[in-house]
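Case study 2.
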Amino acid sequence: MFWLRVLASRIRGLFSKRHLERELDEELRAHIEMATEENVRRGMRPEEARQAARREFGGMEQTKEVYRDWRGLPLAETFVRDVRYGLRMLRRSPAFTTVAVLSMALGIGANTAIFSLIDAVLFESLPVHHPEQLVLLWQEASGHDTVPLSYPLYSQIRDHNAVFSGVVAFHAFKGWSVRSNGEAEPTTGQFVSGNYFSVLGITAVAGRLLSPDDDRVAGGHPVAVISYGLWKRKFALDPAAAGKVIHIFGHPFTIIGVTPPQFFGTQAGFLPEVTVPLSMQPVVMPGGMFASDSHTSWLYVMGRLKPGTSDLQARASLNVLYQQFLTAEAGPRLTPEVQRRLSEQSLAVASGSQGLNRLRKQFSFPLRILMSVVGMVLLIACANLASLLLARSAARRKEIAVRLAIGAGRFRLIRQLLTESLLVAFAGGALGLAFAFWSDTLLLKFFAVELKVQPNVQVLGFTAALCFLSGVLFGLAPALRATRADLSSALKQTGGGSGPRRLDQVLVTTQVALSLLLLVGATLFVRSLQNLKNVDAGFNREHVLLVGQDPAPNGYKGHRAAELYKMLLAKVEALPTVRSATVVQDTPLTEPSWFENISIPGYTPPGGEELNTFFNHVGAHFFETFGIPVLAGRDFESRDDETAPPVIAINESMARRYFGDVNPIGRPTSAGTIIAVVKDTKYDNLRARMRPVVYCPFLQSQASWNGAHLLAIRTAGDPILLAPFVRRVVREIDPNLSISVNTMAELVDDSLREERLFAALTSLLGLLALLLVCIGLYGVVGYAVARRVNEIGIRMALGAKPANVLWLMMRESLWLVGAGMAIGLPLAFAAAHCVASLLFGLNPVDPISLVLSLLMLLVCATLAVYLPARFASRVDPMIALHYE
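Prediction:
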């Protein structure tokens, strides 16, 4: 333990220097006095005795230095002095410091922003007790995707397993109608087993959380746990919120507690605002998934492994239990064939440390691309920092030469210069960290997912590592260059060289190549987005308000649901600025939800083709409201109700496929008589091909009355201005109904969310890279001018014209730009083929994108080179020759 005492003593020495200096002075004086007294006793006079004592003792200052090194931490003290000196030097050059710090801030900030999203989507563990012990359970059938579990299967595993200390079930849903403080709003809610919070190790910040007793009696415990966000938004963090009543789909539930703010649920992308017991599912969502139904697989199940149990052991044990469950469920139907099929089924066990993370598959590819892009931006920023440091070293040649001349070691100077570059990198990193978490909010809006992105150890460590590596790797070469100066020429401030040196050339060429790569990618994504926006989707998206609601959980089913929609339409059509209104099951650019087989007399399906077609149940004036041209026949009208003969409308693709050149108007089908042919309309997304569509009057399709429908309202002005009036109409009819309001224009924009994200981010990063390249070129040319002032003066004194000097300085840099373009073009071709699946209507090797990128880069690079070269052409020969 001796070394610990020594270390502690040295650390104390850093913080008590004055006291230790006084003790050292007193101790040295005591030694001198004792030696002096001894010399006096030997017969010397006092002055001779003191001088002899000093000679015997040696140099006082040297002795003090030895003791100072012994009592302190020399490396730490030297580092502190280097930092102070570096800060003074950076403060002396505000222009350099500002540009360098901002360059690094943008590069490091962009990388931190994307990495924080990657960490939240791909790596972040659940904020629960020991998340590494959690595993997810799936049903896995041969040749099929994994599926959730039924409630009886969950109960079997919960009560009879030997490998888990606890098993929980959960499922989150969006669009719950939750009324609190007299106002209903769509909210994310989830059903969970009673042991959900206790197994996960979550504690309440107010009240209590659910217990197994809350989940024993079906429909018997109408209690709810709310999120910290809902508690803050609706109850202003009032502790008395526990005990108040909220209404979920019109049913009263008593709030019993609040989850902690860091808890974001166990389904990534779903932040549950309201949590209720599984036993309340038949009350909240009747007619859906019944807890006692063994054929409905809807529950996500997670277990906490007992200590010492591996995933393989858990899988083997659970599959024995699973086969017993399947055999019991089959009962008398257990034939050899059924038994063979059941034996092929199994339970899968996967890590549950991140919960149910469906976002990993959805966003991993886009995030990888964005991480590659921001990585190239960081490389450009670092190369730019190296160029700036080289340019700055040209202005500090005399200072460095003087320090070398008076005895400073080269390693000591390199360490000082590296300290300065690290200060720039870490200052940029600190600024970039703030920029990253501001930009993450915008990125989450683009991705339209509910995630909590916040600073954590991984993100901060990533940022710190970037700062350190950037500062050292790209500050080392300029430091080595600066300390290898010719002392004679440096002290006389004379320069040499005929242009940019090899390191400058490599840095500039690299920056230009990477910048061209990013510019080509940005141009491709922007042009692809423009192509998608110009696609004829078959409808008019302007001035259409979409009002979403699902009245079924509020008790509106069958004829009651149809009457509700009739009432809503009647009141909405009476509002000012409303031109037309309708009901629609699936709006354009949404995924079709209803397919049926249709038979057409006179049409024989080739090769046993099944006429399984998308059916869209819509109301009167649907085509007028969405601006879909009716090519033949008429629009649906209010008289097309349940008492009228069934009629349908078909789109162009349907007419071409099944009727060819024959007019289909009036032709009978199994779904009704065709009364209209309308223009093809895009469903799914703007990239999708036109599909055959059958439009049925909503009032004639009783089977669809229990499903969720939207109100579509065409207005004379801005549709959003109509939203408050629509909300008031809905509250007048039923205050328990919650609605979501959107516009068709916003829906179209949302369908292009990924394309807009790539176009916006790559454009921003491409322009940023271009700016950094221009700064780097400016620094390199300025560095060359600073080194060659004497040469320029001699040339001009011998008769060289300013235009000759201008071209000389520009030529030596522009050929580096050309070399960078030559290297960047094949890289851009290769990268474009990697993202070809994200493009629309474009060849990856798009000549227009390449030409635009080359021209943009060439113009900006020429301007960046021209400005310092123009300064060189205006050098006064007399002043320049004084440099010699």
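The radius of gyration is 38 Å.
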